[in-house]
Amino acid sequence: MENPGAPRRTLPPERRTDPSGSLGLTAKPLVVQVPEAPEGALLVEMDGVLDTTTRGWADNEFAALLKDSEFQALVLDARGIEWVSSQACGVFITVLKTLRGRGGTLTVVPGPAVREKLVLIGFSQFIPLAADPAEAAAFLTGAAADRAPGASTADLPREVEDGLGHKAVFQSLPDLPGGLVVRYSGTMDRQAGAWFYGLVLRRVEAGHVRLALNLSGLQWVASPGIGHLTGILKAVKLRDGRLVLFGIPPKIYEVLQLLGFSQFFEITDTEAEAVALLKRNSAGTEEPEFPKIFKCPICGARTRAAKPMRGRCKSCKTLLQVTDEGTVFLG
Fold this sequence. Notes:
Elements: E1 16-17, E2 23-29, H1 30-33, E3 41-50, H2 52-67, E4 73-84, H3 90-100, E5 105-110, H4 112-120, H5 133-144, E6 159-161, E7 167-172, E8 179-188, H6 190-205, E9 210-221, H7 223-238, E10 242-246, H8 250-258, E11 266-268, H9 271-278, E12 292-295, E13 302-305, E14 309-312, E15 319-322, E16 328-330
Parallel strand pairs: 3-4, 4-5, 8-9, 9-10, 10-11
Antiparallel strand pairs: 1-2, 2-3, 6-7, 7-8, 12-13, 14-15, 15-16
Helix pairs in contact: 2-3, 5-6, 6-7
């Protein structure tokens, strides 16, 4: 007898095509192709032509798939797409919105045609891209490592290990809104980079958009691993945040320079320098810390200013002014 409370896993048994035969779609649990993938992930393979003619059919197919199942993560393998129009790329955004509406995630495995189009129209900033389903699974494993059922963003663990020698440690900066120091240890190839990217992206989505990344424990890095660091940079910049790297071993720094990536990252030697940089705005001046907690200069009462203001102390009624720079004056 079917358990009414169990997630539905009804999937089309074979490849389906639109009426014209131009676009095909096959759906199956991700673990069928990648055994180490987390449970609750759906793999959808697309092939053919995705344009304004076939988009309507694709929208309906994805709507039916997501309605008839409770998969929280979808990996869309679009390497079989031979051509895609800009308007038809809206399929990816529609799926993304549906999944995010129920706390899910979308990862796209693009072929050359889809990658070029997603980058050109800016969608690659919103949708994580993976080289293959295995890398997408590694990304999902990282994101799921701290996503216990019913857990809030405040419950994200401080330390996470993948069991393969890779470790990430996260420490909030109480004096910097959205500030987070991240320490990574181990090597960083394609799989490890995807795992780490998933962990960090989860925290970026939780509001930690000012990141100081400690790479002193990084033993070795491959080009795909650097690509995932670039993905983190894009994620924080999209949210008006900032990423600063520090503690980079000399040999790793040489690799960054050789591949031309050192010009994209802000790099310092120490954590103190990185945090100081995070506190400064684009004009080079230190940003005021709001909400600002201070003591009334007259009575010493603890006072809170959510933004620059002019008002009276609730205790002694003294008129106070907090400037844009966070300075407190009488009157």
